[in-house]
Specification:
The protein is an alpha/beta fold. It folds into three domains: 175 residues, FAD/NAD(P)-binding domain (3-Layer(bba) Sandwich), CATH 3.50.50; 123 residues, FAD/NAD(P)-binding domain; 114 residues, 2-Layer Sandwich (Enolase-like, domain 1), CATH 3.30.390. Strands 3-2-1-7-19 form a five-stranded parallel sheet, covered by helices on one side. A five-stranded parallel sheet has the order 9-16-10-11-12. It is globular, with a radius of gyration of 23 Å. Bound molecules: flavin-adenine dinucleotide.
Length: 434
């Protein structure tokens, strides 16, 4: 029976440990904190639906002991090293306690990297690193009238929307490149329209970053692009930088542990999954920092660490409703596709829908020479119903040529009678007349 260590008990670690145990391995899960199975993707729900810290724990974490996984909480792994043919997991404290395994899955996530802003230490600034920070903000909301939110744009919108619903007047700073720099122009315009129509219950969207936080004794205003706006609280949302014990593995340009589609690193027997991993793709690599990539990568890493032969297919898929707009993204942006050696172009289409916002927008990124569809962004009417299809188109590496004649369901009377994804593929100039 192979002995498998899983280091880090977040989403990726839980799915890895379960997959390893279910393939018959003797699996041990090491977690530095006292909580296993906390899903960080659920943290915004502490603001919107009053969820407590216990409500962040994945139901799958309760299956660990039944599956035979030994869970060691409060065990921070400092290093993984090969010794006498086995992999040794070394504890940071307790005199460097050691345990030996046949293979190791590293799933230690990211460490928060907080935007550097002058005045960030003033009372009234909430830096949302973890569950206790979300809880503190939720409990402090009663005394906050005007709040400025800054961080990764989709998370900023989600947090801003939750705060606005709870009665604060919210401005979300969308960054120096603005909303349009991070989403396709039509989708950015649809979100802006929806924010304006949402009135007081929706956040105001500001193109720009927070340059400094002003106030005597506590937050009174933020400065951005030469202007000053009054507020009595600021919410800063950190980015994450991959963090892991020293295991001698090759790292990618984004700082993650480089893995192939079997989730194995450059060190034989050491696998990685979740936010600490970076997936080789074409001539480059892409971070795997989503719940969905943590789940799939964790399952594949855990199974292969136990002698399995699984392959992960990634689509980096997200599906959410932001400001009342259904939004789903899969795959790479044009800039990301270029960074992995592709020759990308984008085609955008709008399809009439029913009701508000009354349109389905599709933006497709494809590689010009091969017509591989490497990214999809869908927004508006019934966009969520296309999310799984978008994920499979990208994850399975379909080409636009295949999509053009893809059958899709026919529902008499509906506004579009073929899949908007397939209809968008038809608009690719390289396929015109083909
Ligand atoms: C606010 C927020 C909202 C999000 N929303 C979405 C969303 O809507 N959709 C989506 O798909 N994704 C979302 N994500 C991303 C998603 O939550 C993460 O990609 C996912 O949780 C990563 O899981 P992980 O197991 O890799 O890392 P983590 O969940 O960070 O788990 C890592 C674990 O390792 C432990 N650890 C760290 N170092 C050590 C060590 N040396 N030894 C032992 N243990 C260690 C940590 O304590 C932690 O428990 C969101 C993330 C955040 C922060």
């Amino acid at each position: 029976m192979p002995r498998v260590a899983v280091v880090g008990g977040g989403a990726a670690g839980v799915f890895a440990a379960l997959a390893a145990a279910r393939l018959g391995a003797d699996a041990t899960l090491f977690e530095s904190s006292q909580r296993v199975g906390v899903s960080r993707a659920l943290m915004p729900l502490m603001l919107s639906d009053g969820r407590g810290e216990d409500g962040l724990v994945l139901p799958e974490a309760r299956e660990l002991s039944g599956a035979g996984v030994e869970v060691r909480k409060g065990f921070e792994v400092a290093a993984v090293a090969r010794r006498e043919g086995l992999l040794e997991v070394v504890r940071r404290s307790n005199g460097g306690e050691r345990a030996r395994f046949d293979s190791v899955v590293v799933s230690t996530g990211t460490a928060p990297s907080v935007p550097q802003v002058r005045g960030a230490s003033k009372p009234g600034v909430f830096v949302l690193r973890g569950p206790s920070d979300y809880l503190a903000l939720s409990e402090g909301l009663g005394s906050i009238e005007r709040v400025a939110v800054w961080g990764p744009v989709l998370l900023g919108l989600k947090v801003g929307e939750a705060l606005a619903r709870r009665g604060s007047s919210v401005s979300v700073y969308c960054g120096a490149s603005g909303l349009g720099g991070q989403l396709s122009a039509p989708v950015a315009a649809m979100l802006r329209r929806s924010a304006i129509e949402g009135g007081a219950g929706a956040p105001a969207l500001v193109d720009g970053s927070i340059d400094s936080i002003l106030g005597v004794g506590r937050v009174e205003a933020v400065a951005s692009g030469g202007g000053v706006s009054a507020c009595d609280a600021v919410v800063l949302l950190p980015n994450g930088a991959p963090s892991y014990p020293d295991a001698g593995c090759a790292k990618g340009p984004n700082g993650g542990l480089l893995v192939d589609s079997s989730m194995e690193t450059s060190v034989p027997g050491v696998f990685a999954a979740g936010d600490s991993a970076e997936v080789r793709f074409k001539a480059g690599s892409v971070p795997a920092r989503l719940f969905s990539t943590a789940r799939v990568g964790g399952e594949v890493a855990g199974a292969n660490a136990s002698g399995g032969m699984r392959t992960a297919s990634f689509s980096w898929a997200m599906e959410q409703t932001v400001l009342g707009v259904e939004l789903c993204t899969a795959g790479l942006s044009e800039a990301e596709a270029r960074s992995v050696g592709l020759d990308p172009a984008t085609v955008e289409c709008a399809f009439p829908g029913e009701g508000s916002p009354g349109q389905t927008l599709v933006s497709m990124v494809y590689d010009r020479p091969t017509r591989l569809v490497c990214g999809l962004e869908l927004a508006g009417w019934r966009a969520s119903s296309l999310a799984a299809a978008a994920s499979m188109v990208v994850g399975l590496g379909l080409t636009a040529d295949r999509l053009v004649h893809l059958e899709s369901p026919y529902a008499p009377g509906l506004a579009h009678e073929r899949s908007p994804i397939s209809l968008t593929a038809r608009q690719i100039p390289e396929l015109q007349g083909a």
